[in-house]
Design goal:
2 copies of one chain form a homodimer. Chain A has 245 residues and is α+β, with helices and mostly antiparallel strands. Chain A has 2 domains: 5-145, Jelly Rolls, CATH 2.60.120.10; 161-241, Winged helix-like DNA-binding domain superfamily/Winged helix DNA-binding domain (Arc Repressor Mutant, subunit A). Chain A is built from 8 helices and 12 strands. Chain A has a 5-stranded antiparallel sheet with strand order 1-2-9-4-7. In chain A, a hairpin with a 5-residue loop joins β5 and β6. The first copy, chain A, is globular, with a radius of gyration of 18 Å. Mean pLDDT of chain A is 84; it is low at 1-32. At the A-B interface, β6 and α4 of A face β6 and α4 of B. Chain A binds a DNA duplex (30 and 30 nucleotides) through α7.
Chain lengths: 245, 245
DNA sequence: CGCAGCCTTGACCATTATCAACGCTGGTGG
DNA sequence: CCACCAGCGTTGATAATGGTCAAGGCTGCG
Protein backbone atom coordinates (compact mmCIF):
# COMPACT_ATOMS: atom_id res chain seq x y z
CA UNK A 1 0.00 0.00 0.00
CA UNK A 2 3.00 2.29 0.22
CA UNK A 3 4.30 2.13 -3.29
CA UNK A 4 1.29 3.74 -4.89
CA UNK A 5 1.10 7.18 -6.31
CA UNK A 6 -2.12 8.71 -5.03
CA UNK A 7 -3.55 11.66 -6.90
CA UNK A 8 -6.73 13.19 -5.57
CA UNK A 9 -8.78 14.06 -8.67
CA UNK A 10 -12.40 14.10 -9.66
CA UNK A 11 -12.24 10.46 -10.57
CA UNK A 12 -13.93 11.22 -13.85
CA UNK A 13 -13.01 8.09 -15.73
CA UNK A 14 -14.92 6.01 -13.27
CA UNK A 15 -18.13 7.45 -14.54
CA UNK A 16 -17.95 5.83 -17.94
CA UNK A 17 -16.67 2.65 -16.44
CA UNK A 18 -19.14 2.44 -13.61
CA UNK A 19 -22.03 1.18 -15.65
CA UNK A 20 -20.46 -2.26 -15.81
CA UNK A 21 -18.27 -2.18 -12.76
CA UNK A 22 -17.54 -5.50 -11.18
CA UNK A 23 -19.28 -7.21 -14.00
CA UNK A 24 -18.14 -10.75 -14.51
CA UNK A 25 -20.78 -11.61 -17.08
CA UNK A 26 -21.06 -11.20 -20.79
CA UNK A 27 -24.16 -9.05 -20.62
CA UNK A 28 -22.96 -5.74 -19.32
CA UNK A 29 -26.43 -4.29 -19.59
CA UNK A 30 -27.76 -6.22 -16.64
CA UNK A 31 -25.26 -4.66 -14.26
CA UNK A 32 -26.52 -2.17 -11.73
CA UNK A 33 -25.76 1.38 -12.81
CA UNK A 34 -25.83 4.66 -10.93
CA UNK A 35 -26.97 8.05 -12.15
CA UNK A 36 -24.73 11.10 -12.45
CA UNK A 37 -25.77 12.68 -9.18
CA UNK A 38 -24.92 9.51 -7.28
CA UNK A 39 -21.57 9.30 -9.00
CA UNK A 40 -20.85 12.95 -8.14
CA UNK A 41 -21.51 12.15 -4.53
CA UNK A 42 -19.14 9.19 -4.70
CA UNK A 43 -16.42 11.27 -6.33
CA UNK A 44 -16.13 13.39 -3.21
CA UNK A 45 -15.12 10.27 -1.28
CA UNK A 46 -12.51 8.93 -3.65
CA UNK A 47 -8.82 9.36 -4.33
CA UNK A 48 -7.67 8.72 -7.86
CA UNK A 49 -4.44 6.78 -8.05
CA UNK A 50 -2.04 5.75 -10.78
CA UNK A 51 -0.44 2.32 -10.63
CA UNK A 52 2.68 0.97 -12.28
CA UNK A 53 3.02 -2.71 -13.22
CA UNK A 54 3.44 -4.72 -10.03
CA UNK A 55 2.10 -2.01 -7.70
CA UNK A 56 0.07 -3.46 -4.86
CA UNK A 57 -3.53 -2.43 -4.25
CA UNK A 58 -4.31 -5.00 -1.61
CA UNK A 59 -2.17 -7.47 0.30
CA UNK A 60 -3.56 -10.71 1.71
CA UNK A 61 -3.77 -10.40 5.50
CA UNK A 62 -3.60 -6.58 5.64
CA UNK A 63 -6.43 -4.66 7.34
CA UNK A 64 -9.27 -4.14 4.88
CA UNK A 65 -9.34 -0.35 4.96
CA UNK A 66 -10.09 0.46 1.33
CA UNK A 67 -12.28 -0.33 -1.61
CA UNK A 68 -11.28 0.27 -5.21
CA UNK A 69 -12.85 0.91 -8.54
CA UNK A 70 -10.49 0.17 -11.43
CA UNK A 71 -10.73 2.93 -14.03
CA UNK A 72 -8.11 1.82 -16.59
CA UNK A 73 -5.57 -0.90 -17.15
CA UNK A 74 -5.73 -4.36 -15.56
CA UNK A 75 -5.25 -5.94 -12.17
CA UNK A 76 -4.61 -9.48 -10.94
CA UNK A 77 -6.35 -10.78 -7.81
CA UNK A 78 -4.83 -13.87 -6.22
CA UNK A 79 -4.40 -16.10 -3.21
CA UNK A 80 -1.20 -17.82 -2.14
CA UNK A 81 -0.38 -21.07 -0.40
CA UNK A 82 2.38 -20.97 2.22
CA UNK A 83 4.84 -22.60 -0.20
CA UNK A 84 4.24 -19.94 -2.85
CA UNK A 85 1.75 -21.68 -5.12
CA UNK A 86 -0.50 -18.98 -6.52
CA UNK A 87 -4.07 -19.06 -7.74
CA UNK A 88 -5.19 -15.98 -9.61
CA UNK A 89 -8.91 -15.74 -8.85
CA UNK A 90 -9.60 -13.00 -11.36
CA UNK A 91 -8.36 -10.34 -13.71
CA UNK A 92 -9.97 -6.94 -13.27
CA UNK A 93 -10.32 -4.24 -15.92
CA UNK A 94 -11.73 -0.74 -16.18
CA UNK A 95 -15.05 -0.58 -14.37
CA UNK A 96 -14.40 -3.52 -12.07
CA UNK A 97 -14.81 -3.27 -8.34
CA UNK A 98 -12.35 -4.58 -5.75
CA UNK A 99 -11.95 -4.91 -2.04
CA UNK A 100 -15.14 -6.18 -0.42
CA UNK A 101 -14.16 -8.31 2.53
CA UNK A 102 -16.21 -9.91 5.26
CA UNK A 103 -13.64 -9.81 8.02
CA UNK A 104 -11.24 -7.11 9.07
CA UNK A 105 -8.48 -8.24 6.72
CA UNK A 106 -8.26 -8.99 3.03
CA UNK A 107 -8.32 -12.66 2.11
CA UNK A 108 -6.55 -11.97 -1.20
CA UNK A 109 -3.90 -9.79 -2.81
CA UNK A 110 -4.28 -7.51 -5.82
CA UNK A 111 -1.59 -5.96 -8.04
CA UNK A 112 -1.55 -3.92 -11.22
CA UNK A 113 -0.55 -5.90 -14.30
CA UNK A 114 0.08 -2.89 -16.52
CA UNK A 115 -0.01 0.86 -15.92
CA UNK A 116 -3.48 1.38 -14.49
CA UNK A 117 -5.64 3.83 -12.61
CA UNK A 118 -8.09 3.27 -9.79
CA UNK A 119 -10.39 5.15 -7.44
CA UNK A 120 -9.80 4.41 -3.80
CA UNK A 121 -12.44 4.74 -1.09
CA UNK A 122 -12.01 4.51 2.66
CA UNK A 123 -13.98 1.51 3.75
CA UNK A 124 -15.80 3.23 6.61
CA UNK A 125 -16.87 6.18 4.52
CA UNK A 126 -17.95 3.94 1.71
CA UNK A 127 -19.94 1.74 4.06
CA UNK A 128 -21.75 4.76 5.49
CA UNK A 129 -22.43 5.99 1.99
CA UNK A 130 -23.83 2.61 1.00
CA UNK A 131 -26.09 2.55 4.06
CA UNK A 132 -27.61 5.88 3.08
CA UNK A 133 -27.87 5.12 -0.60
CA UNK A 134 -30.02 2.09 -1.45
CA UNK A 135 -29.33 2.42 -5.17
CA UNK A 136 -25.63 2.11 -4.52
CA UNK A 137 -26.18 -0.90 -2.33
CA UNK A 138 -28.35 -2.55 -4.96
CA UNK A 139 -25.70 -1.94 -7.61
CA UNK A 140 -23.10 -3.40 -5.31
CA UNK A 141 -25.20 -6.48 -4.63
CA UNK A 142 -25.68 -6.94 -8.33
CA UNK A 143 -21.95 -6.78 -8.97
CA UNK A 144 -21.08 -9.21 -6.22
CA UNK A 145 -23.75 -11.60 -7.49
CA UNK A 146 -22.16 -11.38 -10.92
CA UNK A 147 -18.75 -12.06 -9.47
CA UNK A 148 -20.13 -15.06 -7.65
CA UNK A 149 -21.59 -16.50 -10.84
CA UNK A 150 -18.25 -15.94 -12.57
CA UNK A 151 -16.49 -17.67 -9.68
CA UNK A 152 -18.77 -20.69 -10.06
CA UNK A 153 -17.99 -20.88 -13.76
CA UNK A 154 -14.30 -20.75 -12.91
CA UNK A 155 -14.74 -23.59 -10.41
CA UNK A 156 -16.23 -25.70 -13.18
CA UNK A 157 -13.26 -24.83 -15.35
CA UNK A 158 -10.68 -25.63 -12.67
CA UNK A 159 -12.34 -28.77 -11.41
CA UNK A 160 -13.54 -30.43 -14.57
CA UNK A 161 -12.06 -29.01 -17.78
CA UNK A 162 -8.94 -30.22 -19.61
CA UNK A 163 -6.04 -27.89 -20.33
CA UNK A 164 -7.25 -27.37 -23.87
CA UNK A 165 -10.80 -26.59 -22.71
CA UNK A 166 -9.53 -24.17 -20.07
CA UNK A 167 -7.50 -22.13 -22.52
CA UNK A 168 -10.27 -22.07 -25.11
CA UNK A 169 -12.70 -20.85 -22.43
CA UNK A 170 -10.22 -18.23 -21.31
CA UNK A 171 -9.67 -16.83 -24.79
CA UNK A 172 -13.42 -16.63 -25.36
CA UNK A 173 -14.22 -14.97 -22.03
CA UNK A 174 -11.40 -12.48 -21.80
CA UNK A 175 -12.53 -9.90 -24.40
CA UNK A 176 -15.96 -9.63 -22.78
CA UNK A 177 -14.34 -8.38 -19.58
CA UNK A 178 -11.76 -6.10 -21.07
CA UNK A 179 -13.25 -2.82 -22.23
CA UNK A 180 -9.90 -1.98 -23.84
CA UNK A 181 -10.36 -4.42 -26.67
CA UNK A 182 -8.98 -2.48 -29.60
CA UNK A 183 -11.16 -3.80 -32.37
CA UNK A 184 -13.49 -6.63 -33.27
CA UNK A 185 -14.58 -9.33 -30.86
CA UNK A 186 -12.25 -11.93 -32.37
CA UNK A 187 -9.29 -9.82 -31.30
CA UNK A 188 -7.88 -10.81 -27.90
CA UNK A 189 -5.51 -8.64 -25.89
CA UNK A 190 -3.39 -10.51 -23.35
CA UNK A 191 -1.95 -7.92 -20.97
CA UNK A 192 -0.89 -10.71 -18.61
CA UNK A 193 2.11 -13.03 -18.92
CA UNK A 194 1.95 -16.76 -19.58
CA UNK A 195 2.69 -17.32 -15.90
CA UNK A 196 -0.39 -15.32 -14.96
CA UNK A 197 -2.57 -17.17 -17.44
CA UNK A 198 -1.23 -20.44 -16.00
CA UNK A 199 -1.94 -19.36 -12.42
CA UNK A 200 -5.44 -18.31 -13.42
CA UNK A 201 -6.23 -21.59 -15.17
CA UNK A 202 -4.54 -23.94 -12.72
CA UNK A 203 -1.89 -25.00 -15.24
CA UNK A 204 1.85 -24.48 -15.79
CA UNK A 205 3.37 -21.99 -18.21
CA UNK A 206 4.65 -24.87 -20.33
CA UNK A 207 1.18 -26.30 -20.77
CA UNK A 208 -0.24 -22.88 -21.64
CA UNK A 209 2.47 -22.40 -24.23
CA UNK A 210 1.99 -25.85 -25.73
CA UNK A 211 -1.78 -25.52 -26.04
CA UNK A 212 -1.51 -22.07 -27.62
CA UNK A 213 0.98 -23.53 -30.10
CA UNK A 214 -1.42 -26.37 -30.88
CA UNK A 215 -4.30 -23.91 -31.42
CA UNK A 216 -2.04 -21.87 -33.70
CA UNK A 217 -0.88 -24.91 -35.66
CA UNK A 218 -4.45 -26.13 -36.14
CA UNK A 219 -5.52 -22.69 -37.36
CA UNK A 220 -7.98 -21.90 -34.57
CA UNK A 221 -6.06 -18.80 -33.53
CA UNK A 222 -3.34 -16.58 -34.98
CA UNK A 223 -0.70 -15.01 -32.74
CA UNK A 224 -0.32 -11.35 -33.76
CA UNK A 225 2.33 -10.76 -31.10
CA UNK A 226 3.13 -12.26 -27.72
CA UNK A 227 0.32 -10.25 -26.18
CA UNK A 228 -2.24 -10.18 -28.91
CA UNK A 229 -4.03 -12.81 -30.94
CA UNK A 230 -6.93 -13.26 -33.27
CA UNK A 231 -9.54 -16.01 -33.06
CA UNK A 232 -9.70 -17.43 -36.58
CA UNK A 233 -12.35 -20.06 -35.93
CA UNK A 234 -14.64 -18.95 -33.09
CA UNK A 235 -17.11 -21.82 -33.56
CA UNK A 236 -14.36 -24.40 -33.24
CA UNK A 237 -12.92 -22.64 -30.19
CA UNK A 238 -16.37 -22.61 -28.59
CA UNK A 239 -16.76 -26.32 -29.29
CA UNK A 240 -13.38 -27.00 -27.69
CA UNK A 241 -14.27 -24.88 -24.65
CA UNK A 242 -17.42 -26.91 -24.02
CA UNK A 243 -15.66 -30.25 -24.41
CA UNK A 244 -17.38 -31.08 -27.68
CA UNK A 245 -14.16 -31.99 -29.47
CA UNK B 1 -39.52 -27.64 -9.67
CA UNK B 2 -42.54 -29.96 -9.94
CA UNK B 3 -41.49 -32.78 -7.67
CA UNK B 4 -41.41 -30.71 -4.52
CA UNK B 5 -43.86 -30.88 -1.70
CA UNK B 6 -44.73 -27.31 -0.81
CA UNK B 7 -46.19 -26.61 2.58
CA UNK B 8 -47.08 -23.03 3.44
CA UNK B 9 -46.09 -22.58 7.08
CA UNK B 10 -44.70 -19.88 9.26
CA UNK B 11 -41.23 -20.84 8.27
CA UNK B 12 -40.19 -20.85 11.89
CA UNK B 13 -37.02 -22.86 11.61
CA UNK B 14 -35.52 -20.23 9.40
CA UNK B 15 -35.36 -17.85 12.30
CA UNK B 16 -32.74 -19.78 14.20
CA UNK B 17 -30.84 -20.50 11.05
CA UNK B 18 -30.99 -17.02 9.63
CA UNK B 19 -28.28 -15.55 11.79
CA UNK B 20 -25.65 -17.33 9.73
CA UNK B 21 -27.52 -17.83 6.51
CA UNK B 22 -25.39 -18.00 3.42
CA UNK B 23 -22.30 -17.92 5.50
CA UNK B 24 -19.32 -19.51 3.83
CA UNK B 25 -16.80 -18.44 6.46
CA UNK B 26 -15.68 -19.85 9.75
CA UNK B 27 -16.77 -16.84 11.76
CA UNK B 28 -20.51 -16.98 11.82
CA UNK B 29 -20.65 -13.93 14.00
CA UNK B 30 -19.70 -11.56 11.20
CA UNK B 31 -22.69 -12.53 9.11
CA UNK B 32 -25.50 -10.03 8.71
CA UNK B 33 -28.43 -10.89 10.93
CA UNK B 34 -31.98 -9.63 10.96
CA UNK B 35 -34.16 -8.88 13.96
CA UNK B 36 -37.40 -10.70 14.76
CA UNK B 37 -39.67 -8.08 13.28
CA UNK B 38 -37.88 -8.25 9.97
CA UNK B 39 -38.04 -12.02 9.96
CA UNK B 40 -41.77 -11.90 10.72
CA UNK B 41 -42.23 -9.69 7.71
CA UNK B 42 -40.28 -12.14 5.56
CA UNK B 43 -42.32 -15.08 6.82
CA UNK B 44 -45.41 -13.67 5.18
CA UNK B 45 -43.72 -13.99 1.81
CA UNK B 46 -42.40 -17.51 2.12
CA UNK B 47 -43.60 -21.04 1.48
CA UNK B 48 -42.06 -23.75 3.58
CA UNK B 49 -41.23 -26.87 1.63
CA UNK B 50 -40.01 -30.36 2.48
CA UNK B 51 -37.52 -32.02 0.15
CA UNK B 52 -36.64 -35.68 -0.31
CA UNK B 53 -33.13 -36.75 -1.38
CA UNK B 54 -32.67 -35.84 -5.04
CA UNK B 55 -35.51 -33.31 -5.14
CA UNK B 56 -34.71 -30.35 -7.35
CA UNK B 57 -34.80 -26.80 -6.01
CA UNK B 58 -33.29 -25.12 -9.04
CA UNK B 59 -32.47 -26.37 -12.53
CA UNK B 60 -29.70 -24.80 -14.63
CA UNK B 61 -31.33 -22.80 -17.45
CA UNK B 62 -34.79 -22.55 -15.85
CA UNK B 63 -36.30 -19.08 -15.28
CA UNK B 64 -35.00 -17.68 -12.00
CA UNK B 65 -38.36 -17.21 -10.29
CA UNK B 66 -37.51 -18.16 -6.73
CA UNK B 67 -35.06 -17.68 -3.90
CA UNK B 68 -34.56 -20.17 -1.10
CA UNK B 69 -33.42 -20.28 2.46
CA UNK B 70 -32.38 -23.76 3.56
CA UNK B 71 -33.78 -24.49 7.00
CA UNK B 72 -32.62 -28.06 7.59
CA UNK B 73 -30.74 -30.84 5.82
CA UNK B 74 -28.25 -30.29 3.02
CA UNK B 75 -28.26 -29.29 -0.63
CA UNK B 76 -25.78 -29.65 -3.49
CA UNK B 77 -25.30 -26.78 -5.95
CA UNK B 78 -23.60 -27.67 -9.22
CA UNK B 79 -22.89 -26.87 -12.84
CA UNK B 80 -22.70 -29.36 -15.69
CA UNK B 81 -20.74 -29.57 -18.90
CA UNK B 82 -22.60 -30.80 -22.00
CA UNK B 83 -21.00 -34.26 -21.72
CA UNK B 84 -22.16 -34.68 -18.13
CA UNK B 85 -19.06 -33.71 -16.19
CA UNK B 86 -20.27 -32.13 -12.97
CA UNK B 87 -18.69 -29.55 -10.70
CA UNK B 88 -20.38 -29.13 -7.35
CA UNK B 89 -19.79 -25.48 -6.47
CA UNK B 90 -21.05 -25.77 -2.93
CA UNK B 91 -22.89 -27.70 -0.27
CA UNK B 92 -25.58 -25.76 1.56
CA UNK B 93 -26.85 -26.42 5.07
CA UNK B 94 -29.44 -24.95 7.42
CA UNK B 95 -29.29 -21.16 7.27
CA UNK B 96 -27.74 -20.95 3.83
CA UNK B 97 -29.24 -18.85 1.10
CA UNK B 98 -29.76 -19.94 -2.50
CA UNK B 99 -30.96 -18.61 -5.79
CA UNK B 100 -29.53 -15.18 -6.48
CA UNK B 101 -29.04 -14.85 -10.21
CA UNK B 102 -28.06 -11.94 -12.36
CA UNK B 103 -29.92 -12.90 -15.51
CA UNK B 104 -33.40 -14.29 -16.00
CA UNK B 105 -32.32 -17.90 -15.67
CA UNK B 106 -30.35 -19.88 -13.13
CA UNK B 107 -26.76 -20.62 -14.06
CA UNK B 108 -26.64 -23.64 -11.74
CA UNK B 109 -28.73 -26.52 -10.43
CA UNK B 110 -29.51 -27.35 -6.82
CA UNK B 111 -30.82 -30.61 -5.33
CA UNK B 112 -31.47 -31.93 -1.84
CA UNK B 113 -28.88 -34.43 -0.64
CA UNK B 114 -30.89 -35.72 2.30
CA UNK B 115 -34.39 -35.00 3.58
CA UNK B 116 -34.36 -31.23 3.97
CA UNK B 117 -36.58 -28.22 4.40
CA UNK B 118 -36.42 -24.80 2.77
CA UNK B 119 -38.28 -21.51 2.61
CA UNK B 120 -39.15 -20.44 -0.88
CA UNK B 121 -39.70 -16.79 -1.92
CA UNK B 122 -41.03 -15.46 -5.20
CA UNK B 123 -38.21 -13.52 -6.73
CA UNK B 124 -40.24 -10.41 -7.53
CA UNK B 125 -41.76 -10.15 -4.10
CA UNK B 126 -38.43 -10.73 -2.46
CA UNK B 127 -36.79 -8.10 -4.63
CA UNK B 128 -39.44 -5.54 -3.70
CA UNK B 129 -39.03 -6.44 -0.07
CA UNK B 130 -35.28 -6.01 -0.32
CA UNK B 131 -35.70 -2.61 -1.97
CA UNK B 132 -37.80 -1.40 0.93
CA UNK B 133 -35.69 -2.96 3.63
CA UNK B 134 -32.08 -1.76 3.69
CA UNK B 135 -31.19 -4.04 6.60
CA UNK B 136 -32.24 -7.04 4.56
CA UNK B 137 -30.23 -5.84 1.61
CA UNK B 138 -27.17 -5.30 3.78
CA UNK B 139 -27.50 -8.80 5.21
CA UNK B 140 -27.82 -10.17 1.70
CA UNK B 141 -24.75 -8.30 0.50
CA UNK B 142 -22.82 -9.62 3.44
CA UNK B 143 -23.81 -13.19 2.65
CA UNK B 144 -22.96 -12.93 -1.00
CA UNK B 145 -19.60 -11.39 -0.10
CA UNK B 146 -18.99 -14.37 2.17
CA UNK B 147 -19.92 -16.77 -0.60
CA UNK B 148 -17.54 -14.99 -2.93
CA UNK B 149 -14.66 -15.33 -0.49
CA UNK B 150 -15.49 -19.01 -0.08
CA UNK B 151 -15.55 -19.38 -3.87
CA UNK B 152 -12.08 -17.84 -4.12
CA UNK B 153 -10.78 -20.25 -1.51
CA UNK B 154 -12.28 -23.10 -3.52
CA UNK B 155 -10.58 -21.82 -6.69
CA UNK B 156 -7.25 -21.99 -4.88
CA UNK B 157 -8.09 -25.54 -3.84
CA UNK B 158 -9.14 -26.64 -7.32
CA UNK B 159 -6.35 -24.91 -9.18
CA UNK B 160 -3.35 -25.48 -6.96
CA UNK B 161 -3.85 -28.13 -4.28
CA UNK B 162 -3.03 -31.83 -4.54
CA UNK B 163 -5.67 -34.51 -3.95
CA UNK B 164 -4.44 -35.03 -0.41
CA UNK B 165 -4.52 -31.30 0.34
CA UNK B 166 -8.02 -30.95 -1.13
CA UNK B 167 -9.48 -33.68 1.02
CA UNK B 168 -7.74 -32.43 4.16
CA UNK B 169 -9.12 -28.92 3.50
CA UNK B 170 -12.56 -30.33 2.88
CA UNK B 171 -12.66 -32.30 6.12
CA UNK B 172 -11.52 -29.25 8.07
CA UNK B 173 -14.00 -26.84 6.48
CA UNK B 174 -17.11 -28.98 6.39
CA UNK B 175 -18.07 -28.95 10.08
CA UNK B 176 -17.92 -25.13 10.19
CA UNK B 177 -20.70 -24.96 7.59
CA UNK B 178 -22.89 -27.73 8.90
CA UNK B 179 -24.91 -26.60 11.91
CA UNK B 180 -26.03 -30.22 12.35
CA UNK B 181 -22.69 -31.37 13.66
CA UNK B 182 -23.73 -33.74 16.39
CA UNK B 183 -20.90 -33.24 18.80
CA UNK B 184 -17.37 -31.90 19.10
CA UNK B 185 -15.57 -30.07 16.32
CA UNK B 186 -13.40 -33.06 15.45
CA UNK B 187 -16.53 -34.97 14.47
CA UNK B 188 -17.34 -34.74 10.76
CA UNK B 189 -20.69 -35.67 9.27
CA UNK B 190 -20.62 -36.55 5.56
CA UNK B 191 -24.21 -36.45 4.31
CA UNK B 192 -22.95 -36.57 0.72
CA UNK B 193 -21.67 -39.57 -1.23
CA UNK B 194 -18.08 -40.11 -2.36
CA UNK B 195 -19.17 -39.11 -5.85
CA UNK B 196 -20.38 -35.76 -4.54
CA UNK B 197 -17.19 -35.17 -2.60
CA UNK B 198 -15.24 -35.99 -5.74
CA UNK B 199 -17.32 -33.61 -7.87
CA UNK B 200 -16.85 -30.88 -5.28
CA UNK B 201 -13.08 -31.33 -5.10
CA UNK B 202 -12.40 -31.91 -8.80
CA UNK B 203 -11.33 -35.52 -8.23
CA UNK B 204 -12.70 -39.02 -8.93
CA UNK B 205 -14.43 -41.24 -6.40
CA UNK B 206 -11.47 -43.63 -6.52
CA UNK B 207 -9.03 -40.91 -5.54
CA UNK B 208 -11.29 -39.72 -2.72
CA UNK B 209 -11.55 -43.27 -1.45
CA UNK B 210 -7.81 -43.87 -1.67
CA UNK B 211 -6.87 -40.66 0.14
CA UNK B 212 -9.39 -41.31 2.92
CA UNK B 213 -7.91 -44.78 3.31
CA UNK B 214 -4.43 -43.30 3.50
CA UNK B 215 -5.53 -40.78 6.16
CA UNK B 216 -7.15 -43.62 8.08
CA UNK B 217 -4.07 -45.85 7.81
CA UNK B 218 -1.77 -43.05 8.97
CA UNK B 219 -4.02 -42.35 11.95
CA UNK B 220 -5.05 -38.82 11.00
CA UNK B 221 -8.74 -39.71 10.88
CA UNK B 222 -10.93 -42.56 12.06
CA UNK B 223 -13.92 -43.69 10.02
CA UNK B 224 -16.87 -44.15 12.39
CA UNK B 225 -19.14 -45.19 9.54
CA UNK B 226 -19.34 -44.47 5.83
CA UNK B 227 -20.85 -41.08 6.57
CA UNK B 228 -19.16 -40.11 9.76
CA UNK B 229 -15.57 -39.73 10.84
CA UNK B 230 -13.45 -38.30 13.58
CA UNK B 231 -10.34 -36.17 13.10
CA UNK B 232 -7.73 -37.82 15.32
CA UNK B 233 -4.87 -35.43 14.58
CA UNK B 234 -6.23 -31.97 13.66
CA UNK B 235 -2.81 -30.31 13.62
CA UNK B 236 -1.48 -32.83 11.15
CA UNK B 237 -4.58 -32.51 8.97
CA UNK B 238 -4.19 -28.72 8.98
CA UNK B 239 -0.57 -29.07 7.96
CA UNK B 240 -1.55 -31.37 5.10
CA UNK B 241 -4.28 -28.97 3.98
CA UNK B 242 -1.81 -26.09 3.72
CA UNK B 243 0.76 -28.14 1.82
CA UNK B 244 3.21 -28.25 4.69
CA UNK B 245 3.74 -31.99 4.52
C1' DC C 1 -31.50 -64.49 0.77
C1' DG C 2 -30.43 -61.89 -3.04
C1' DC C 3 -29.93 -57.75 -5.28
C1' DA C 4 -28.71 -52.88 -6.02
C1' DG C 5 -26.03 -49.21 -4.91
C1' DC C 6 -22.06 -47.52 -3.06
C1' DC C 7 -17.40 -48.05 -1.68
C1' DT C 8 -12.71 -49.98 -1.87
C1' DT C 9 -8.74 -51.87 -3.97
C1' DG C 10 -5.65 -53.08 -7.73
C1' DA C 11 -3.43 -52.72 -12.37
C1' DC C 12 -2.54 -49.86 -15.90
C1' DC C 13 -2.59 -45.54 -18.49
C1' DA C 14 -2.69 -40.59 -19.86
C1' DT C 15 -2.59 -35.93 -19.00
C1' DT C 16 -0.03 -32.64 -17.24
C1' DA C 17 3.97 -31.40 -14.30
C1' DT C 18 8.86 -31.15 -13.95
C1' DC C 19 13.41 -30.47 -15.51
C1' DA C 20 16.34 -28.74 -18.96
C1' DA C 21 17.90 -26.40 -22.99
C1' DC C 22 17.31 -23.03 -26.26
C1' DG C 23 15.27 -18.86 -28.68
C1' DC C 24 13.41 -14.35 -28.89
C1' DT C 25 13.12 -9.51 -27.55
C1' DG C 26 13.84 -5.29 -25.52
C1' DG C 27 16.78 -2.49 -22.71
C1' DT C 28 21.41 -0.98 -21.40
C1' DG C 29 25.97 0.11 -21.55
C1' DG C 30 30.37 -0.15 -23.76
C1' DC D 1 25.72 0.96 -33.18
C1' DC D 2 26.30 -3.30 -31.61
C1' DA D 3 26.85 -6.77 -28.01
C1' DC D 4 25.31 -8.52 -23.97
C1' DC D 5 22.09 -9.73 -20.64
C1' DA D 6 17.75 -10.55 -18.30
C1' DG D 7 13.28 -11.91 -18.63
C1' DC D 8 9.92 -14.30 -20.93
C1' DG D 9 8.40 -17.84 -24.01
C1' DT D 10 8.91 -22.24 -26.57
C1' DT D 11 10.15 -26.92 -27.17
C1' DG D 12 11.68 -31.53 -25.84
C1' DA D 13 12.46 -35.55 -22.67
C1' DT D 14 11.04 -37.69 -18.65
C1' DA D 15 8.29 -38.41 -14.47
C1' DA D 16 4.38 -38.46 -11.41
C1' DT D 17 -0.14 -37.53 -9.98
C1' DG D 18 -4.42 -38.76 -10.60
C1' DG D 19 -7.69 -40.96 -14.04
C1' DT D 20 -9.60 -45.15 -16.17
C1' DC D 21 -10.96 -49.76 -16.20
C1' DA D 22 -12.02 -53.77 -13.71
C1' DA D 23 -13.08 -56.77 -9.93
C1' DG D 24 -14.69 -57.58 -5.55
C1' DG D 25 -16.72 -56.28 -0.86
C1' DC D 26 -20.01 -54.19 2.19
C1' DT D 27 -24.66 -52.71 3.54
C1' DG D 28 -29.34 -52.08 3.64
C1' DC D 29 -33.69 -53.23 1.83
C1' DG D 30 -37.25 -55.92 -0.33
Amino acid sequence: MFDINVLPTDCAQKRAANACSGCGAREHSVCGALDDRQLDRLDTLADQMTLQPGDVLVRQGDPANHLFNITSGSVRVYRLLPDGRRQITGFLFAGDFLGLATGDTYAFSAEAIETSTACRFRRNEYRDEVRNNPALEAALLDRVTHDLAAAQAQMLLLGRKTAQERIASFLLDLPAHDPCRPGPADHVRLPMTRAEIADYLGLTIETVSRVLTRFKTSGVIRLLSLNELRIEDPARLRAIAEGEI
